[in-house]
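Q: I'm building a small set of examples for a reading group on sequence design. Run inverse folding on the following structure and report the sequence directly after it, with nothing in between.
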């Protein structure tokens, strides 16, 4: 509710896509008065995330978050999307979860009197995932389970398969937002979803081969090949798929591991064992969180040899993205090792981008930062690394690079321009 003439504006509209900027402005407060801005969101599990920042109104009684600095709170300085990426869980070690993208994520924004705590005005930003006319189709085709997103307009479109983290289930936000850019995107589940095994003893690469064939053969997908986008555990799956399976043209690996992990991976008569973790290298943070960054052996070591994916067999283009402060494992070492193997085999079809001070979960732009959480393979809460501001900048920058990568090597029907580079990353070609 508004007090007198005080207005809270969310521009260009209260309805925006999740990955787009929202321009927050407050007008009509007393000149030079303290104003606290608060944000709050409840995720699909009922977990509450909050952020706040203190501002000083200008001589006209306005606060423009795109130009005014926060003087304290969840972040400081000029941060146009700070009220979104700095959202933190009320209960520690929880990651923001969005299970179904048919409904928007609702972020409540409040302007509060910085001296009395009185709520002056509030508004709700509806952060959507699917553009009008998008088709969301549950997939149950043979063994394949997932959700297919088909953009509006005249196809066929380039196809992308979206693989998410270890932990089971299905994640739709990135797939739907990618589909908005002019792609048919299959968000593929691979365990712990519907009738898929809940606790598999081994993963079968032939399941993923069936999914590649399904996507390539879909009448709305143009060929000849498809793209892959992956993160964390699925980064290894994407490398394995690119190494063994035909029909893959462009692969994005975000904070993946060059070696197989956790579960044996089988393809026909080949079984790739997981890297043997060394519990002696597991440490603890000052707050008691488990730190597994150095638990896996170096990919170039003799003990790792049997578990390393034969990436030299791949014929696709790669984009390896790695966070320098990733504490799930050493993503930079893996990315550089993968690049070295390709280079040693005369293959220059790759890019490596690294992000200082970013943590493990490089998600879509403006996703709340997740510094720690439950790790399905470890069975307890672990530290994932990163600093909130640097991590947010990395997410925004990487999203632009992913768009450019797929436009270049898959092509699409979108004329949406790439996000600008924030110049804080390192690129190796």
């Amino acid at each position: 509710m508004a007090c007198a003439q005080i207005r809270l504006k969310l521009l260009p509209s209260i309805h925006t896509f999740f990955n787009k900027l929202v321009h927050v402005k407050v007008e009509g407060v007393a000149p030079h008065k303290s104003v606290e801005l608060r944000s709050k969101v409840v995720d699909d599990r009922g977990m509450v995330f909050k952020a706040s920042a203190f501002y000083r109104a200008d001589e006209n009684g306005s606060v423009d978050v795109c130009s005014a600095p926060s003087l304290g709170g969840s972040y400081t300085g000029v941060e146009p999307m700070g009220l979104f990426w700095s959202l933190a869980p009320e209960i520690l070690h929880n990651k923001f979860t969005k299970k179904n993208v048919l409904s928007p994520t609702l972020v409540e924004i409040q302007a509060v009197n910085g001296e009395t705590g009185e709520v002056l005005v509030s508004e709700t930003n509806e952060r959507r995932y699917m553009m009008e006319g998008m088709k969301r189709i549950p997939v149950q085709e043979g063994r394949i389970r997932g959700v297919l997103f088909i953009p509006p307009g005249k196809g066929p479109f380039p196809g992308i398969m979206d693989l998410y983290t270890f932990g089971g289930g299905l994640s739709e936000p990135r797939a739907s937002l990618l589909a908005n850019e002019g792609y048919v995107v299959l968000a593929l589940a691979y365990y712990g979803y519907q009738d898929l095994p809940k606790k598999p003893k081994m993963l079968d690469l032939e399941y993923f081969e069936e999914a590649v064939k399904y996507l390539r053969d879909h009448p709305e997908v143009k060929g000849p090949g498809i793209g892959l986008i992956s993160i964390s555990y699925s980064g290894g799956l994407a490398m394995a798929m690119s190494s063994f399976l035909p029909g893959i043209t462009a692969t994005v690996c975000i904070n993946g591991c060059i070696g197989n992990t956790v579960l044996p991976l089988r393809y026909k008569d080949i079984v790739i064992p997981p890297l043997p973790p060394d519990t002696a290298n597991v440490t603890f943070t000052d707050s008691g969180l488990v730190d597994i960054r150095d638990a896996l052996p170096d990919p170039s070591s003799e003990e790792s040899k049997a578990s390393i994916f034969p990436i030299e067999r791949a014929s696709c283009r790669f984009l390896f993205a790695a966070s320098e402060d990733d504490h799930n494992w050493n993503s930079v070492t893996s990315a550089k090792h993968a690049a070295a193997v390709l280079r040693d085999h005369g293959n220059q079809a790759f890019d490596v981008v690294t992000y200082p001070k970013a943590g493990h979960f490089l998600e879509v732009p403006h996703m709340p930062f997740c510094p720690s959480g439950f790790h399905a393979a470890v069975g307890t809460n672990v530290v994932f690394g990163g600093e909130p501001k640097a991590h947010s900048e990395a997410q925004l920058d990487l999203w632009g690079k992913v768009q450019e990568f797929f436009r270049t090597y898959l092509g699409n029907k979108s004329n949406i321009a790439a996000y600008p580079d924030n110049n804080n990353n390192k690129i190796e070609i």
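The chain has a mean pLDDT of 94.
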